[in-house]
Amino acid sequence: MYEDEFELTFDLSGLGDPPDPQPEQSAPEAPPQPEAQGIQPARADAGGGVRVLAWLRLCPVAALCEELVFRGAVQGLAAGLGGWSTAVQAVLFAAAHGIGPGGLYALGFGLGLGWLRRRTGSLWPGVLLHGLNNWALFCMQG
């Protein structure tokens, strides 16, 4: 059926000995530490640029955004409820900050900021107080 026959051969002499059926298992290497790879955690021991960016995000930017949302939009939309608008925004503010001690602190802080908003008619005193609060918490984290 086939007119030409050929032979296929392989030269395996340069491949060395065949592998053992069960190679020796060595202890796994410990993963390299981030510091060994030149990566620093975003904490007090990190570079100044990382610390400044974290501060900007947490202190003035977060304070401004949260005041615009909770004391501006939410409290403003609930203004028809009178003094209850302060409670409504404070409960939502606390819920956004989680359950537990942090949420309880946020509830009290939100009530105070809501009262300040109603008392002054302006968001700016709350933005300033909120930014100072965040700055103090940021400093306590180290």
From TrEMBL:
<dbReference type="GO" id="GO:0080120">
    <property type="term" value="P:CAAX-box protein maturation"/>
</dbReference>
<protein>
    <recommendedName>
        <fullName>CAAX prenyl protease 2/Lysostaphin resistance protein A-like domain-containing protein</fullName>
    </recommendedName>
</protein>
<feature type="region of interest" description="Disordered">
    <location>
        <begin position="11"/>
        <end position="42"/>
    </location>
</feature>
<feature type="domain" description="CAAX prenyl protease 2/Lysostaphin resistance protein A-like">
    <location>
        <begin position="52"/>
        <end position="135"/>
    </location>
</feature>
<dbReference type="Pfam" id="PF02517">
    <property type="entry name" value="Rce1-like"/>
</dbReference>
<dbReference type="InterPro" id="IPR003675">
    <property type="entry name" value="Rce1/LyrA-like_dom"/>
</dbReference>
<dbReference type="GO" id="GO:0004175">
    <property type="term" value="F:endopeptidase activity"/>
</dbReference>
